[in-house]
Amino acid sequence: GIHTQCLACVERCKGLHDGPLMLCRFIRHPLFLAVFCVLSLSAKAWSVEKTGHDADSEADAGEDSKDANHKQRTKDGHTIEVVASPLQTDDTAVESADRSEIESSGSSSADQILEMFSGLGVSSGRKGQRSISMRGFAQRQVAVFWDGIPLESPYDGTLDLSLIPAELLESVTVLKGAGSILFGPNGMGGAVNLRTRSLRSLPVLGVSVQAGQFDSVHASVYHAHRYGPVEALVLLGLAQRSAFGLSSRFSPSPNEDGGRRENSSLDMIHTLAKILWHVGEGHEIHADLRLIDGKKGVVPDAFADSARVRYWDFDPTRDLSVSLGHTGHYDAGWRSDEVAYLGTYQNRLLSYDDSTYSTQGLPRAFTSDYHDWVLGLRLSASGMVSEKDWVTWLSRSWLGMEHDAHEQILDSQKSDPVSKTWMSAAQEFQFLMGRRWSLSAALQTDLELIPGLDGREKSLDWAVLPMASARFWALEWLSIKTTTARRARYATLKERFSSDGVFRLANPDLGPESAWHFGLDLIAEPWPFLHASLSVFDAEVQDLIENLPVETQNHTAEQLVNIGHARMAGVEVAVKYKPREKIVLRVSYSWLFSRRLDESPPDDRLEYRPSHKFVLQAHGQMNSWLHFWTGIRVLGPSYFINPDTLSWGRLGVYAVWDARLEFALSNRASAWVMMSNILDSDYQTQYGFPEPGRAVWAGLRFFYMGADKKQVQE
Length: 714
Hints:
Layout: H1 2-14, H2 21-28, H3 30-51, E1 70-73, E2 79-82, E3 94-97, H4 99-105, H5 110-114, E4 120-124, E5 130-134, E6 137-138, E7 143-146, E8 149-150, E9 169-176, E10 190-196, E11 205-212, E12 216-227, E13 230-241, E14 266-280, E15 283-298, E16 312-329, E17 335-351, E18 366-388, E19 391-410, E20 413-414, E21 418-433, E22 437-450, E23 459-475, E24 478-489, H6 493-497, E25 504-505, E26 513-527, E27 530-551, E28 556-580, E29 583-596, E30 612-621, E31 626-636, E32 638-641, E33 648-651, E34 654-666, E35 669-676, E36 695-704, H7 707-713
Parallel strand pairs: 7-10, 25-28
Antiparallel strand pairs: 1-2, 3-9, 4-5, 5-6, 7-8, 9-10, 11-12, 11-36, 12-13, 13-14, 14-15, 15-16, 16-17, 17-18, 18-19, 19-20, 19-21, 21-22, 22-23, 23-24, 24-26, 26-27, 27-28, 28-29, 29-30, 30-31, 31-34, 32-33, 34-35, 35-36
Helix pairs in contact: 1-3
């Protein structure tokens, strides 16, 4: 085995003989070859230790066949990976967190996981929702997926990520910019894919309980097993709290006394069920169900004047989704995926008279019911077209269609339903040329149909979105990639049709926003224990949807129109370092310039886009029974418009430090303790909505792997 490893190292070095003469002599030096062999053997040993089996037999390890990626090696040494996710995992702008990292961090929801990604900001909204921004793009401008299926409310194009339990997630993958177009429309700023728990990664039976201050409890029970050709998974859980605590540094305001945050209660349940049926060699049928249901208090604006304070509750808020699909593997590495899905989103917003949250007698009180549903179909195929001489030709195709509908009932008055239908098709080709070049070209076409309303004719919007990229390996461990792409986002049903008939007017003719992306990425991995990347990006946004004053017969109203132009540009640096065998250190920094180009300073600012973000994470296993994780993030500053004074304000820089320790009690049980916001920082991600202060959590987990899964895990 050692002899084979050494020969492989020598062959890799010979591949660089077309470089400068001095480099050739250095690479052929015996000392260099010896060091290279040692590093290669270390990487091999680390891979075997980490997975519990030889890396060359990884396909047999036990990733469930629905999520597993198909790999093969070309004549020129490139590894081709046909991925199940709509995001390309070999793209340089991709960042991900697997199940072990999610568990290590102690994150309880999807928004907490995403907070530790570079280039992403997470903020609290006025309805209590937690949403992201990616390189300056708001969440409705980012495509968010659940196992490749769009995860968004059809009405406003977003979903509260704090309601997505981390316990349901196997991994989180983020694609920043536009490195690939194979994920459909509305990903103008990038994409996020939340992949649910793997059938084979879960124990046969497990229970997890976590408790914290203010009666906070997170609990789940799960079961996963194979019954002949059928694999099944069921996960049930709940999340409850009476409130969350504010920082001791918070100064009381007219609407918030401090201590327990006003109306921050939560009472949710969640369910995930998956079935995978192996119907034949290389073919599986999968069915999935997701239910998130409960009630959530909406925290009031801590600084708003009395006329603008809202006393709201969501009761209930419900998300139910089902899907049925097929995955097939064929000769020459070809793979096909087909999935049909149906989702319903329902919430009732209760507006009360005052802070007692008990009466609805004043004009400000109301009851609003939203009923949304979505029906869609997605088809994809990928594989190798040909492999001749020094060129390998890969193909990826994608076709999707979806119908969205929304209906509102306001104080028993039913509004006219609104809907839209879109279709998207994309074709991408990748050419691997020798050992140094990878070229990609793609074209996506989007169509959106808006039915007629109030006597209006149907409207049809369309967009043609090209993409081209080139990647060059200057050395085996050093590559440079450049990307140019155009992305678009269609207006949401809310942006088109929301109107109060007086001061806010609907605009069914809203067109799509679009952005040209330009990116340059440098990736270096000189040793198995060190990975570094540098990204420079620029996005030129056109037809930005903004409010415009409109003169009517009696007054001035506002209407959304396509008038804005903006620039989102910046730099990201990330380093992953493995100083010891079971310890990982991650450091990242991102700088963002986000400005409107159709306004003069200071009105050219875009709200709630932090200019700087620094993240430091470390996690690892100290010994056989102790695992640690710690993370620090520093963000800011960001700007906002004060809703009371309509003048610009500034949220300063803040730092948040979290840490977690997990103790192995036995081979079937573990316990952990976690402290979030150790510094007890008093900070806001949106003006008027202070974030939680210091909090302490403790938890227990009991599990039984089963004989087959235990062997794979070991």
